[in-house]
Amino acid sequence: MQEVKSILMVGVGGQGTILASNVLAEGLLKSGYDVKMSEVHGMSQRGGSVNTQIRFGEKVYSPVIEVGAADVIVAFEKMEAVRWLNYLKKDGVVIVNTVEIPPLSVLISKEEYPKNLIEEISKSVKTIAVDADKIAESLGNIKAQNIVLLGVLVKYLGLQGIDWEEVIKNNVPQKFVELNINAFKKGLEIN
């Protein structure tokens, strides 16, 4: 076992943030970790922000991640990475999907989507940028981008010894199992 690790997953409704968090939590539980998880959906069905907080280790007392305490932020969208960056530890890492999902204010031309977000994030913290949407699309379904990002996270944390294929089988519909296992493997290949 190890010290408590705190993972913050953030995205936009419909990106599979909660599914990826559930797969992560189940895999960690099956390996003997104490795991606590909380999730906030908000207006997720309307394209709003979604976040989940997962903490694991030998003994975890709360799922809540304080500002400046996340070991890893997994951002399913670039602007969500910026929105939650203050939750990251000084020596933490951001795993960020390179996709842009414009919020309503951008769609109705009241604001512009900020430029060079990943470059700006990279100036202050360790950043692993992944075009998870493109990888998932190449596998046949863009919705598997969440599991690509999960694979990147698992590799970064050194948790490859868990039977992730079994956990994925337990959490996705049968017809999408092979797609998601392949997406997870592609994520594991990313440095």
From TrEMBL:
Gene Ontology molecular function terms on file: indolepyruvate ferredoxin oxidoreductase activity
InterPro entries in alphabetical order: IorB_Oxidoreductase (IPR052198), Pyrv/ketoisovalerate_OxRed_cat (IPR019752), Pyrv_flavodox_OxRed_cen (IPR002869)
Domain Pyruvate/ketoisovalerate oxidoreductase catalytic residue range list: 13-189
Assigned EC number: 1.2.7.8
Keyword hit for Oxidoreductase: yes
Coiled coil ranges: none
Keywords: Oxidoreductase, Pyruvate
Enzyme class: oxidoreductase
Protein name stated in the entry: Indolepyruvate oxidoreductase subunit IorB
Source organism: Thermoanaerobacter kivui
The gene coding this protein: iorB
